[in-house]
Design brief:
By secondary structure, this protein is mainly α. It has 2 domains: 53 residues, Endonuclease III, domain 1 (Orthogonal Bundle); 70 residues, Endonuclease Iii, domain 2 (Orthogonal Bundle), CATH 1.10.1670.10. The chain contains 9 helices and no strands.
Length: 160
Amino acid sequence: MTARLFPKYNTPEKLGALTQEQLEFLIRDCGLFRSKAKNLLGLCRKLVDDFHSQVPQDMKSLLSLPGVGRKTADVMLSVAFGKPAIAVDTHVFRVSHRLGLSDGKDPLETEQDLQRLIPRAKWGDAHHWLIWHGRKICKAPKPKCGECPLVELCPAKMAY
C-alpha cells in the first residue's frame, strides 16, 4: 500500500487533497479501508492546518490527530522521535501480565505499571523486547514455556 501511495502522495498536502473515494481506492486492499481513508484525510488536513505539515512530537498533540490512539502515539514518540515511551499492544499486554509485571485492567494501566518498573531510558527497548517475546515465545494460545529463558521467573509457567 505504501509503495503505491508514497511515490505520488508523499506530503500531507498531497495526500489530504484526495477525495475519500480516491483514497479508498488506493488503500482498498487493507482492512477497514473506509475508516482508515477518513482518518488519514482528517489527519493530513489537521497536520497542514494546525501543525505546519509536521508530525507533532508530544502526546497531547498526537492524540488530537484523527485515528491516532495512545498506542500509535507511543510508537511515534519512541520510534520516530526517540523519546521514552512504552506502547502497549496485545503482545506487551499479554506478556506483562503473564510475567507478573502488571495486573492493569487496560493498556493504560499496564503502561503505567511498566513505566514504574522499567528505567525510563529503557522504555523504547523494553517495548520491542516484550513484543518480540510475545510473538516468538509467549504466544497467545500456546506459549512455548519450554523454550522460554524467563520460565524460572514466570508466575504463569505452570498454567501452560
